[in-house]
Design goal:
Elements (H helix, E strand, L loop, with lengths): L14 H8 L3 H9 L6 E2 L5 E2 L2 H15 L4 H30 L1 H8 L6
Antiparallel strand pairs: 1-2
C-alpha cells in the first residue's frame, strides 16, 4: 500500500505548513514561485499544494541563497543542474545502446581487411 507521503511529487502541504517546515515566510514561497524557482501543485480550488520534492527544492534554494547567490543565480544553478541530469541520462542511454550492440562496436574497431 502506497501512502500519500510516500509519493515525493504529490502535493500534500499547504503554503503555511510548507513555509513552516522550510523555516521560511509564506510570502517567500510565493516570491520563489513567481520567480520560477518553484511550481507547486494546485488543488481544484486553486490552493497551492507543496510536495516532498518541493520541500527538498526549498532546502536547496535556501542553501544556495545562504552561500551568497541572488534569485537569478539560484535559477541559473538549478537550470544547470537540470541540464546536467538530462545529459547524464542521455549518456547512460547511449551506453546501454552500446552495450546491447557489441557486434557493431567490434566491427567498428577491427582493422579493414584488404580485398
Amino acid at each position: 500500500m502506497t501512502l500519500p507521503w510516500d509519493e515525493p511529487g504529490r502535493g500534500l502541504f499547504s503554503i503555511s505548513v510548507a513555509a513552516e517546515l522550510a523555516g521560511l515566510h509564506p510570502q517567500t514561497l510565493r516570491i520563489y514561485e513567481r520567480e520560477g524557482l518553484l511550481d507547486p501543485a494546485r488543488s481544484p480550488g486553486g490552493t497551492r499544494r507543496y510536495s516532498a520534492d518541493d520541500l527538498s527544492r526549498l532546502q536547496e534554494i535556501t542553501t544556495l541563497m545562504a552561500s551568497g547567490l541572488n534569485l537569478a543565480g539560484v535559477r541559473r544553478v538549478l537550470e544547470l543542474q537540470a541540464e546536467t541530469r538530462q545529459l547524464q541520462a542521455e549518456i547512460e542511454r547511449l551506453k546501454a545502446i552500446g552495450r546491447s550492440q557489441p557486434s557493431r562496436r567490434a566491427a567498428a574497431t577491427e582493422p579493414a581487411r584488404p580485398a
